[in-house]
């Protein structure tokens, strides 16, 4: 089952690239680094589905790093909340409901986000409301590491400790990149875990934030805590196409792509002989030529 989810995560990356190309804009790097975290939460961890999205006992999620909305849309579509083809056709177009940050007018999205630093404080409020209403739902938020320069994030950490919110889990997408450069050059976080522990939080370090098994183990551990947990997912936004091997069918359309770095595979259909694959850290595209494998 985990292999199927890992393969689906690769297919959703292709959907993200298609959204960005069709919409002529987006945040590919942050999408690629967060997508496995979203897959783990929506397919393995959270009590949330199109059938119970209005249930007061549902789990809550806020994508605080709202600029990675393309990955969020792709996962919500795979989960059945949204229509993928509709997203691709209208993403980032004038008057579209599929705007470049989460829109709570869409099913499955709890709140608008994108103004950084708001996700954790709002989730503190959601978690506190759950305690006061005697409900057992859990609350999750994903923040970017560049976002941690916002002071409201640390107010959220303080409040989570003050109110003993063991139903709250904060995730930091530690991809070490932000819009103005390397995170460590802009506002370094070398002692990030110790800083957060000093606020009274339990820190779980995920060595590979692109590994769904490791993410699931971290989230399961967080559920057992008697205090609030922070999951640090050390992600890489890039799947380097130079390390991809393509194996194709005789008609040249159906392909299996092997990432030699991770030994993971995913399948796709190529409608043209040339195909553009994004390299998110450089915001460039590699054009690869699709040819039949004679071997």
Order of strands across the biggest sheet?
Answer: 1-2-3-7-6
End-to-end distance: 31 Å
The total beta strand count reads: 12
Count of separate DSSP helical elements: 9
Bin the helical content.
Answer: 25-40%
Unreliable sequence segments: 239-295
Gyration radius over CA: 19 Å
Provide the β-strand percentage band: 15-25%
Shape: globular
Succession of helices and strands: HHEHHHEHEEEHHEHEEEEEE
How is the main sheet built? 5 strands, parallel
- Class by SSE composition: alpha/beta
Oligomerization: single chain
Q: Compute the average pLDDT.
A: 81
Quick gist of this model?
By secondary structure, this protein is an alpha/beta fold. 36% of the residues lie in helices and 20% in strands.
Structural features, described:
The protein is an alpha/beta fold and 295 residues long. It has 9 helices and 12 strands. The chain has helices spanning 2-23, 28-45, 69-79, 84-90, 119-132, 151-162, 183-186, 192-197, 212-223; strands spanning 60-63, 139-144, 168-173, 177-178, 181-182, 202-206, 229-233, 244-248, 254-259, 264-269, 274-279, 284-289. The strands form 4 sheets. Strands 1-2-3-7-6 form a 5-stranded parallel beta sheet, with helices on both faces. Strands 8-9-10 form a 3-stranded antiparallel beta sheet. A hairpin with a 4-residue loop joins strand 9 (254-259) and strand 10 (264-269). It is globular, with a radius of gyration of 19 Å. The two termini are 31 Å apart.
């Amino acid at each position: 089952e985990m292999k199927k989810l890992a393969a689906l995560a690769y297919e959703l990356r292709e959907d993200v690239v298609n959204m960005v190309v069709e919409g002529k804009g987006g945040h590919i790097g942050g999408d690629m680094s967060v997508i496995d975290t979203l897959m783990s939460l929506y397919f393995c961890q959270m009590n949330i589905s199109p059938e119970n999205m209005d249930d007061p006992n549902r789990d809550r999620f806020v994508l605080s790093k709202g600029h990675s909305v393309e990955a969020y849309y792709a996962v919500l579509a795979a989960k059945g909340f949204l229509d993928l083809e509709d997203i691709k056709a209208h993403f980032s177009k004038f008057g579209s409901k599929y705007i470049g940050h989460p829109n709570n007018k869409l099913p499955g999205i709890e709140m608008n986000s994108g103004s950084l630093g708001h996700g954790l404080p709002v989730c503190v409020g959601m978690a506190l409301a759950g305690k006061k209403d005697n409900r057992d739902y859990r609350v999750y938020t994903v923040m970017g590491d560049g976002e941690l320069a916002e002071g409201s994030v640390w107010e959220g950490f303080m409040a989570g400790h003050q109110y003993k919110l063991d139903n709250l889990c904060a995730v930091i997408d530690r991809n070490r990149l932000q819009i103005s450069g390397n995170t460590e050059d802009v506002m370094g976080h070398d002692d990030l875990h110790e800083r957060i522990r000093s606020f009274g939080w339990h820190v779980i370090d995920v060595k590979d934030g692109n590994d769904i098994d490791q993410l699931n183990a971290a989230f399961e551990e967080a559920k057992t805590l008697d205090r609030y947990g922070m999951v640090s997912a050390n992600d890489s936004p890039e799947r380097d196409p130079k390390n991809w091997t393509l194996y194709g069918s005789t008609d040249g359309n159906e392909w299996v792509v092997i990432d030699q770095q991770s030994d993971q595979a995913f399948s796709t259909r190529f409608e043209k002989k040339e195909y553009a694959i994004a390299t998110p850290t450089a915001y460039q595209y590699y054009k690869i030529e699709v040819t039949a494998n004679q071997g």
